[in-house]
């Protein structure tokens, strides 16, 4: 792990394990954003399943936020996540059920 840390960390401070945990949180957020966005888009607006998926994705992004958005305070709101998914799918020419 020390070699990996030296290879990818650049100016990151902290132990190799702290860096690895931060890296995994950000990576997981990126990967899950794609998965969860598909789940969110597949559910009608206002459905419990869509609301749950939005909450799960929002929580995942907010766990990574201290590492991903350094220097920004606060948390990302669930309604912003839902609207970003809708905007993205509309820009791709895909409809969102119930919208």
Structural class: mainly alpha
Q: Averaged pLDDT, please?
A: 80
Number of helices: 4
Please state the overall shape, judged from the principal axes of the Cα atoms. Answer: elongated
Helix content: 55-70%
How many runs of DSSP E, i.e. beta strands? 0
Molecular structure report:
The protein is mainly alpha-helical and 99 residues long. It has one domain (16-91). The chain has helices spanning 2-8, 16-42, 48-68, 78-91. The longest helix is centred in the N-terminal third of the chain and has 27 residues, at 16-42. The protein is elongated. The model has no long low-confidence stretch (mean pLDDT 80).
Task: Please give a handful of descriptors for the protein shown.
99 residues, mainly alpha, 70% helix, 0% strand, elongated
